[in-house]
Design brief:
By secondary structure, the chain is α/β, with parallel strands linked by helices. The chain is built from four helices and five strands; from the N terminus they run E-E-H-E-H-E-H-E-H. It has a single domain, classed as Transcription Regulator spoIIAA, CATH 3.30.750.
Length: about 120
């Protein structure tokens, strides 16, 4: 895990080689960051390589079930990496997620960090 620390927030980036098969696979990671930085907003960045191909096949419901847990627990995340798909439903899903603060898809980590900075401007 790599931490990117800023004045008003932290972005915890998961190593791209770690595979996430369930919400439990990321719970220790999230708990560690929140425990060590309890008074600072934390955001989490996952790479598209952290997820099995079933995540991007909406028919499996894996993405919906996993991402709903992040929303339920008020955990803000981004999935980093270019996702090329001809699936209209996946493209619509990504577009809807990007309208929220909970789940975002970005080609580059820097894009996510810029978006977070815009949320913290006073």
């Amino acid at each position: 895990m790599k931490l990117h620390k800023y004045k008003h927030f932290i972005v915890a980036e998961l190593n791209p080689d770690i595979l996430i098969n369930s919400f439990h696979d990321v719970m220790d990671y999230i708990a560690t960051v929140n425990y060590n930085y309890p008074n600072q907003p934390s955001y989490f960045a996952f790479h598209k390589t952290n997820f099995p191909s079933a995540f991007f096949d909406l028919k499996t419901k894996f993405a919906g079930e996993l991402l709903q847990k992040f929303v339920t627990y008020n955990i803000q995340i981004a999935i980093i990496g270019e996702i090329q798909t001809e699936s209209k439903s996946l493209n619509d899903f990504i577009r809807e997620c990007n309208r929220s603060k909970h789940i975002n898809f970005h080609n580059h980590l820097e894009d996510y960090i810029s978006k977070i900075h815009s949320w913290h401007k006073h």
